[in-house]
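Known limitations

Files may contain more than one protein. Parsers should not assume a single record per file. Below, a two-record file is shown to illustrate correct handling: read the sequence, read the token line, then continue until end of file.
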Amino acid sequence: MVTYSTPGPLRKMPESFIGYFHLAAALLALLGGAMVLGLRKGTAAHIRAGRSYLFAMIAVNVSALLIYRTTGSFGAFHMLALISLGSVIAGLVTVRYGGHGRVVRHAFIMMWSYVGIVAAAVSEAATHFLHWPSSVGVIGTSAGVCVLGGLLIHTRGSRVALSIFRDADPHHSRDVSQAAGD
């Protein structure tokens, strides 16, 4: 069980192995995801960073399923962890076995996955460090990050996905444009 008893601004930090593991994995996922977004797509570095992001996200979500401090039972955060876990697995399966337009679908799934981990981090910071009430700290900040992330994905995401195929043959570029909605 994760407990919170440290005084001061860190008073709600986890004091168990699972809590610290969850925190460390989340920080690695945030860093790995940022690296993936910043790297040229399809390169060996992108693939390595993507694998790091995948493993960190699996660790974040599995460890989240083991934390029951807030409600004492399976709750909304556990459901979100399952959805997040499903999205990163879907991103991996899609890029490997997705067929026609698979890379674009992979890009959009993984961009939304990163929005999810950023929303979780912002809501954690708002409730644990800024001491905002849960309704504002969790729901408000998560909704705000998801709206902003959605706007970025749907206004710039197709350009990001298309940039993957800058040097691709015309058949692939046309396929990417159709899948991205351009």
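...continuing to the second record:
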Amino acid sequence: MQHPARCRSLEEFILKKTDIRAFGSITVTAAMKTIFAIIGSASQDSSNHQVLRHLQHKLSPEVHLTVFDRLKELPHFDPEESRSQPPIEIIALRQVIQDADLVLISSPEYIFSIPSGLKNLLEWCAATTVFTDKPVSIITAAAQGETGHAELQRIMRGLGARLHAESNLLIQGVKGKFDAAGNIWDQQLDIQLDQLAEYLKSS
């Protein structure tokens, strides 16, 4: 039986509560590249949100970026359900991942690892082929981040994703790279995001 609180459609679950002010609203055309961006942070307005806001501005209007930042609303992974009767939220997310031209994951590092909510989502995808040969870009924005960055790359390769060095970015000391208004003051980060945006548009 479907849980009454669960969303009834892909659009309702993926697009509800979308912050249009933060990420913009554009008309998607058939020729546009589509990127599905997953924010691994459990915080509402994290450093990873700030990074993606700036990246979005650098990508527009050539790329349509859809941001998903509600990992904590997903059901806990159940291997039997995953194989036989996955929840509607998981079916929806699998389909969006499958349809996207590229998946971008922007995540912090929690206790030298990836966040549990992100790992939960990836576990729901482990018994599928949604990431097989899927281009994936990884941003790790954290205080240190080296261990979590390497771990996430290893997981995504295990899921069959295609990763390239140019599409991955480790941002260390991320909280010190933005001012109080959320603007980038660190010139190196601004250049790195410019380079990543150009790669994502051309790849």
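Parsers that stop after the first record will miss the second one. For reference, the second record is described as follows. The helical segments are 10-15, 20-23, 47-59, 79-84, 88-99, 116-125, 146-158, 187-202.
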